[in-house]
Automatic annotation (TrEMBL):
This is Fe2OG dioxygenase domain-containing protein. The lineage of its organism: Eukaryota, Viridiplantae, Streptophyta, Embryophyta, Tracheophyta. Keywords: Iron, Metal-binding, Oxidoreductase. Residues 162-268 form the Fe2OG dioxygenase domain. It holds the Pfam family 2OG-FeII_Oxy.
Length: 308
């Protein structure tokens, strides 16, 4: 059994922004994960998104496949994705639905279930998308302050002038079936982008590995905190900070219970150049990662996950 991890709790409603930024800095250097409370997304809206997600994933497979993933948006069935290419698994035991930017980005035209089948689905998802995007941008200003930067730094460098946000609905079925190999709901991975805002139901399964280069890996359970988002940083934040802020390895293990979650990936504008911050490197600590366009990095990681 994995040990349970006590993650820091960050209150987004605090009027003391400097103290909050300092707490975020500690959480990002120690864990790369934390809980976010008082974020302003209403409990009723969260419940509506879970309800609509359940309705969609309960549809017959042939109905869901009408919205098969194109240009990174739409439905992906069980085993379509493998987040850990080092495993021999045939894929992750989950099905997903992706909703991309609602505007400002060409090439990503969202797919929506028929109004005859799910009349409120698009309205609920768009409302949630906009609310969580606003939370992510608010949080990004505090992360900038945590790095001793101006609070609008990520806007100024072209990361969040046109943010590349993706909402990912996830369904992990309870029935695993017989198999000789280890089955993962989501195999071990770090997130690709900037910030992830995760909402989960109360079903366990999420685990983190704080020391991703150490063998054997030590996994710790992340508990559910009602009403809180679980926040974690992605690889681009690790690249920006030269490894000061962690992009932590995590996975989802099946528990035999059906599980739903919603991950919102707040990623930089694809044209944004991600390079080491001057405050995070020195002669003794030179940049560990070469500069890269956000869109190029995301594309390489996404293609690898769906290449099997």
């Amino acid at each position: 059994m994995a040990e349970s991890l006590e993650l820091p709790v960050i209150d987004l409603s605090s009027s003391d922004r400097i103290s909050t930024a300092n707490s975020i800095r500690q959480a990002c250097t120690d864990y790369g994960f934390f809980y976010l409370i008082n974020h302003g997304v209403e409990e009723q809206l969260l419940q509506s998104v879970f309800d609509e997600s359940r309705k969609f994933f309960s549809l017959p497979l042939e109905e869901k496949m009408k919205l098969d993933r194109k240009e990174d948006v739409g439905f992906s069935p069980i085993y379509a994705e493998n987040l850990d290419s080092s495993t021999t698994s045939k894929g992750d035991l989950k099905e997903t639905f992706h909703i991309g930017p609602l505007k400002d980005h060409e090439g990503h035209i969202n797919q929506w279930p028929s109004k005859e089948i799910l009349p409120f689905w698009r309205f609920v998802m768009e409302e949630y998308y906009q609310k969580v995007l606003a939370v992510g941008k608010h949080l990004s200003s505090l992360i900038a302050m945590a790095l001793n930067l101006e609070d609008d730094f990520f806007e100024k460098v072209g990361a969040l002038d046109k943010p590349f946000g993706f909402l990912r609905l996830l369904h992990y079925p309870g029935e695993m079936g017989a198999s000789d190999e280890i089955v993962y709901g989501a195999s071990a991975h770090s997130d690709y982008g900037m910030i992830t805002l995760l909402a989960t139901d109360a079903v366990p399964g999420l685990q983190v590995c704080r020391e991703k280069l150490r063998q054997p890996r030590i996994w710790e359970d992340v508990s559910h905190v009602k009403g809180a988002f679980i926040i974690n940083l992605g690889d681009m934040m690790e690249r920006w900070t030269n490894g000061l802020f962690r992009s932590t390895l995590h996975r989802v293990m099946p528990t035999g219970k059906e599980r739903y979650s919603m991950a919102f990936f707040l990623d930089p504008n694809p044209d944004c150049l991600v390079e080491c911050l001057k405050s995070c490197c020195s002669d003794l600590s030179p940049p560990r990662f070469p500069p890269i366009r956000s869109g190029d990095y995301l594309r390489s990681r996404i293609n690898a996950a769906y290449s099997s």
